[in-house]
Amino acid sequence: MKTTLTLLAALGLASVAWAQEAAPATSAERPDAPAAPAFEPPNEVKVVADFARHLAAAEFTAEQQKQIGALFVAARNDKDKNATLLADVLKVQHPELERALGLLLDEKTDAALKVFDELVKSEDAYLSAHANFYAARALAMEERYEQALPMLEILTTVQLDKTMFSGEAMFLKGVAQAETLDRRAAIDTLKDFAKSYPFASERMVIGALHLIDELSYLDEGTLGDVADRMDYSRRRLALAESGERTQDEQTRIVTIIDKLIEEAEEQENQCKGGGSGSGAPGGGGGSPSGNQQPGGPASHSSAAPGQGRMGALHKVARGSEDEAWGEARKREREEVLNAIKAKYPERYRVLIEEYYKSLQEDDR
Hints:
Serine Threonine Protein Phosphatase 5, Tetratricopeptide repeat; 17 helices; 2 strands
């Protein structure tokens, strides 16, 4: 038999009174305040108070009343428990939420997502928001960012004050935008996160700042851009998502690589044309190319003008769109890898090799 939760009602009213006294008014509540910033995080004390008011009118069993009352008491003096208070109470109130989280722990993500999908439809705004958060986080952990993004957008707008996880939701939103190559939006979101949630976990704050820095210096058409797009393509292929967007990115990757190869060949030919005279102290004039060592003569393995060693990579990059890496003759494949190794850092050589291998595996 369910009864009105009188103990929780008392706790709730006390929390509401405490919150109204402790929580400063937001800019929206101050007529004389300047216009609100683009993003303003919810006041956590007020979030808890509103939740307590929401629960005060609900009905619970005697056992639920006991458990929820204890959670409120514990959260009053424990910051960590306060951070998960809403979720902990909802798990007592709605066993299906607890069951879905158990499925996640057992790595049964798809089964858990089905339960979350139903809970999101609940008329209980707090239950809906928490189900949305846990589902979005699970999708992000599996690199299913395109599915997670719409959910994270709702969590950072409409459902902003319905969980204590708005900061983590905003961080995940920024990561998802970066992983889907929406770099400008990712930078803006992560800046909002870093500014609005300075006391979030160190892992997220440092991660956000690092990603902002990385994205800010990433120019289109560079090897860093290639690496980013290759990772996107790899992720989409792993999810069996080989649609138009994925194909467009693969074409873009080949185009960028092709352009970089042409630039490298042009630079190589210019260096060869200039000779290796004395120039500045320590060696020849201009940057070393191919196997040429700084300050030393060209290697005997250097190709003749017009037949640079990068040419083998052109054959792969300029081949038909459905041509897989493994279809190139073994000799050509070795020439390509040697060319990449000579021209670019090790991490890019491995990245390009793995990318073409993934295309081959996808075609099988």
